[in-house]
Amino acid sequence: MWVHESDEHINDASIIPTHTKAWYYSEHGSPGDVLKLDPNWPLPQQLKDDQVLIKVIAASINPVDYKRMHGEFKDTDPHLPIVPGYDVAGIVVKVGGEVKKFKVGDEVYGDINEQGLSNLKIHGTLSEYTIAEERLLAHKPSNLSFIEAASIPLALETANEGFEHAHFSAGKSILVLGGAGGVGNYVIQLAKQVYKASKIAATASTGKLELLRELGVDLPIDYTKENFEDLPEKYDLVYDVVGQGDRAFKAVKEDGKVVTIVPPGHPPAMFFVLTSKGSILENLRPYFESGKLKPILDAKTPVPFSQVIEAISYLETSRATGKVVVYPIP
Questions:
Q1: What 8-state DSSP symbol labels residue 127?
Q2: Is 298's pLDDT higher than 70?
Q3: pTM of the predicted protein model
Q4: Which of 18, 31, 237, 256 has a C-alpha 20 to 30 A away from that of 54?
């Protein structure tokens, strides 16, 4: 989906505002009950030496956003109030004293929370401005819009980390449980374009099987009609993004592996939580610039900033295909 984006994203980079428009919640609950828009959210005026201040152009939302909002991580994420949002694409308006990789005016993107479920920032990306450490960001691929770039970081980095945990190598086969979602579609794309899998199977509902074929899946499995564990073929890696790790072992080879991103994970499945790294985005940038990797956007993208509650509520239905991105952000 191509969307025109204004060139007038920022008028004067030297003017750093003291306040910003931001969505926030001060208690845990569902988006419609707890999420509020503040036109004058205070913006920290001091950057740490390794930090970058970003004018947010687009921000994507992820399942972790509503899970956090519901209080699922409050043991490791006790702070309130919170401006939600992990993924950002925007323009650098100020840099800390030790920042080397970026300068004012650079177009950047990234997942601003280094540890997926702990030490989370209380000022996220659903805001006109946000702050992130240099190491979490990368230069935006020149051929991608801000909307497309914002859809990428958390999902792509998560998908890639699973392959690293599994020590996946060329010529191996993979089954992706949940291939049409934000993370799942990148697992498929990485398996085909980067990790050179010998065979890719993936599950999705009936209406999403064509997308799986377009992404390069050899065996699309309609989970509404058949159980993947009843099929004869077994795989070197079963990559679970939907929480079916307990069934995954029935589809894995004797010496194969199962990775899952859904807690708690069922041993010996490898459960992992993403560690955000800008270097992953930089390493995979040539694949986006050559068109081998493509952002997959949900039909509702872009969602205007005023409709963040509706966007998160829609993501909770699990009906999204690809990523939901908020744009424009005032």
A1: B
A2: yes
A3: 0.95
A4: 31
